[in-house]
Amino acid sequence: MWLSVISAVVLLSAFVTAIRHYSLSLTYTAVTALAMVSLTMIGVALQQETASLARIAGLGLIIAGLALSALAG
Questions:
Q1: How many domains in the chain?
Q2: The pTM is what?
Q3: What distances in angstroms separate CA 65 from CA 6, 33, 44, 47, 48, one per listed residue?
Q4: CB under 8 Å to 62, separation ≥6 — which residues?
């Protein structure tokens, strides 16, 4: 429970800070993507979830999509 509360506070703080400097579409995409990647990594580290090749590739695609979106505009 405490991990979810900490994650929510960090996510909301990052979103509010980022939205002051960047467009809403980029900010929302970045915060959502980074939350997905971070929570997956936390799950692997703390909950002993499996880190399959497909999961790692999916996270890589999320990061690549975010980078492409940031470069596009």
A1: 1
A2: 0.69
A3: 26, 9, 22, 27, 27
A4: 33, 36, 37
